[in-house]
Prior knowledge:
The complex is a heterodimer of chains A (about 400) and B (about 400).
Chain A: E1 7-16, E2 20-21, H1 23-32, E3 38-39, E4 52-53, H2 58-62, H3 67-72, H4 75-90, E5 105-111, H5 116-129, H6 146-155, E6 161-165, H7 170-183, E7 189-196, H8 200-208, E8 238-246, H9 247-252, E9 259-268, H10 286-294, E10 301-305, H11 312-328, H12 342-345, H13 351-366, E11 369-375, E12 380-387
Parallel strand pairs in A: 5-6, 5-7, 10-11
Antiparallel strand pairs in A: 1-2, 1-8, 1-9, 3-4, 7-8, 9-12, 11-12
Chain B: E1 4-13, E2 16-17, H1 19-28, E3 34-35, E4 48-50, H2 54-58, H3 68-84, H4 88-92, E5 95-100, H5 105-118, H6 134-143, E6 150-153, H7 159-172, E7 178-185, H8 189-197, E8 218-219, E9 221-229, H9 230-235, E10 242-251, H10 264-277, E11 286-288, H11 295-309, E12 315-317, H12 320-323, H13 330-344, E13 346-347, E14 370-371, E15 376-383, E16 387-394
Parallel strand pairs in B: 4-8, 5-6, 5-7, 11-12, 11-15
Antiparallel strand pairs in B: 1-2, 1-9, 1-10, 3-4, 7-9, 10-16, 13-14, 15-16
Helix pairs in contact in B: 3-6, 7-13, 10-11
Amino acid sequence: MSPPRRVVVTGIGTVNAATAGGARALAAALAAGASAIAPIRSFDVGGCPSRLAAEVDEAVLAGLIDRDAARRLSRICRLAVAASRRALDDGRLDPGGAEGAGRALGIVIGTEHGDFRSSEEFAAGFLRRGVAGLSPMIFPNTVMNAMGAHAAIALGARGPTVTVNQPTIAGDLAVARGAALVAGGQAEAVVAGGVDELCAPVYRRLAELRALSPMGRPTPEGCRPFAPDHNGPVLGEGATFVLLEERSAALARGATIHAEILAARWSNVPVAPHTAPRARRDPGSLVARLLGEASVPPGAVGAWYGSGNGDPGVDDWELSLLAADLAAAGHAGPAEAPRSLAPMFGQHGGLGALRVSAAALGVAAAGGAALVHGIARGGCRTAILLGRAA
Amino acid sequence: MTRIVVTGLGVVSPYGAGAKTFWAGLAAGACAIRPITLIETDGFRSRIAAEVPAETVAALGVSPRRARADRLALAAAQEALADADLTPRDRAGAALVVGAVGGGMLEGEEWYWEETRTGRPSPRIKALRSILPFTHADTLGWRLRLGGPKETVVMACASGAAAIALGADLIRAGVVPVAVVGGVDALTRICFMGFNALKLLDPDPCRPFDRRRRGMSIGEAAAFLVLEDAAGSQARGARVHGELLGAGMTTDAHHVTSPHPEGEGMVRAMEMALGRAGVSAAEVDYVNAHGTGTLQNDRIEALALRRVFGEGGVLVSSSKSLVGHTMAAAGSLEAVATLLAIQHGLVPPTANLDETDPEIPFDCVPRLARPAPVECAVSNSFGFGGQNVSLVLRRFAG
Lengths: 390, 398
């Protein structure tokens, strides 16, 4: 049996509420640490129990996509195309050029809500004007893989294009699946990450269902992961992707390697949909198993990133699962809660890829290993271990 | 190289519940496409589909409070697990990969329609909790106590086949020994209205490969398979339905709704699957085609088949002529059909096929199932976004 192929991160591309660009732009935003969460500007939230979000500036997005493409693409597809293009540019990989000829470039996109805006517009057309109101141009966008399809066309990616639908940790799951595609030889390189956009009907309904801060609680609205007064997530939007490559191929073409994915796994803790029972343990001890597989002792992990987004259920469960896993590995665990990027960028499908990107930039700068952990209501769990590429 | 076998099958189809019922319908060549009862169809060009019968849904033993798609998925996955006879311990480590598109949109639409038409808040808002496709995997993972990797893949009409390919990858990589994989979709208004708007639906039951074909017929179903590491399945004495030899997944990167005009991505998917399977095109006896019945798909798929297998080089049929295009379920449903064709030595027919299009130079098994020794077969699934998945399946020889 041949040894598994090693997977490295060679590019980062992001369009989010705080910044847009490649690794350098993201590193600057992370260093600044400013929150992009603010009162919503793009639609009316009058009468809505929630009013905050991290919005992408329209002018920034418009500057990243040429006008012809912008006319043809829905907004969420523009976000996905712009960020995936930046990841490829950041990694200096040209799938169409001589260097990339014959490469099987894949795409894995995680999303929580997909292009709900198009679904609503399509249905509203029918309810307003009957059959004549149905737009054949909008319908294809209602299928959740539209963002991946447009990104594949824009990038010339002819390997597998996979869209995964997952709350809270869509981007983490996409990166883990992307790493598996490269490690398993299904693709030579994969652009992996996530995307979501703010959409008025989704935002209002989630707020009404008390799924957003302040979740009907008396404390002020805001994103405060792991804090005693956490009271729900604040939505964000944007797209973030990492370029994953097989290590020897990346070295052969002289790529800049930000970090190596030492191991990536995902699992299920069987619980009822939409629940996050703090007392429920993961019998598979995902993190302990992952560290064991990579032969990295918990004490060697210098940075811990978590999916805690201010939702008390998710925050508490995450801490509890990590503590149990690390105890199983004979370690007391990190002294502090894992780092959450939700207060900077807001909760959205790209957030997991931002976590992975931040971890990659961190190990590139400081060495050591970083672990990106994720847990979602409903029990889907992810763990991605990154280290400096030797 | 890890060999992967199929040890469990579960189906809820327009013929009713159960893999046996599904096979009986296919073998009889019974077309299950009928007038739609689930949603309003006034004013639309096409008003037919292959629905799962109401009495079947009622008898699934799954709470009617769940979304229709969740009910279909749960029943099919339960049947597959029972068929595989897995222990709770096996289940606890099993992966779950669900292909889905519509999620609980049927119920979500009822909420949206009501609120929009009345202008008042509707108590149906709870339906939104199950509207997204990931709900199927969360429901299955919980109810069936599956503790391995769980994911929901949305790859349009190739979703169910992609779930099989991705689940197999997890076994091949040694991550898990068992994977529950498949696809589900219930009929939704958006899907029905969308394909009508694109003028891709035939007003009559679809006629794939026919010279006078006018489009597809939509359907709904759930189909799940239990995949296992062959060595493990043999050690526990499991009954094997067939072997998954290989899979190929490619993207056209050409157009969102139109396939590449020369079927380039389809050809690569089939060649990749055959290459990974280690079999030549000449060894393939039967192709369960994507075969939607649209002018463009059938012509281009035939072009791709000709490039891979040569003109007339293989038997080809379309299950969609019998049970409609079941969207995210189609890939896994047709993989089940292909496995059963291998088991029974009987190729399911292409219904409603009177005169094969001269541009489709293959024996498309018109109207009647045909006894034929099938050792090795390919199942094709293609979808919006230029997504192509081909699976190579073979009789398991031990």
